[in-house]
Amino acid sequence: MTQTQNNQTRPFELGFYNFVDGGTNSLTGTKKDPAEVMKNMLEVIELADQVGLDVFGIGEHHRVEYLASAPEVILGAAAARTKNIRLSTAVTVLSSDDPVRVFQRFATVDLISNGRAEIMAGRGSFIESFPLFGYNLNDYDGLFDEKLRLLSQLNESTNITWSGKYRAPLNNLGVYPRPVQENFRYG
Question: For a tag site, which of 23, 95, 103, 172 has the least CB within 10 Å?
Fold first, then answer.
């Protein structure tokens, strides 16, 4: 069951997920114009909101054929253009990102959207972000486990004390901004 903005309960939710394909136009064989792709993507999200879809997700990729290496930026732009649709990632590659920065970026999108941001934290289906950000692929499982635990703690408390293997410790530090939502939904 899913809860809507006006507190109606529905048995399921409908939405779209997109990786913002910036590769080749399948009809013409020409390279897509990245600015045009992004403009069209924002229009699609705006239309999805207007027709009453529940959620729109942007998947994080660090590959030549995709334009969504920073999905929170796209979601922030979409937040300013929409009113009701929840804005999510189709994955935030948490294993190769800093949970504090992920939380802060999503809290900012949440403030812009008035409580409609959602984090889908995952490992990612591709591994290109690991060498790009200096992580060892042999630490694949440990990185995700540790960073998910820190993200969960950030979601529950403003001041954080943290110590782990892959990230510098935090000693009773406040993490800001805080989102509109009391706790983020994330999977």
Answer: 172
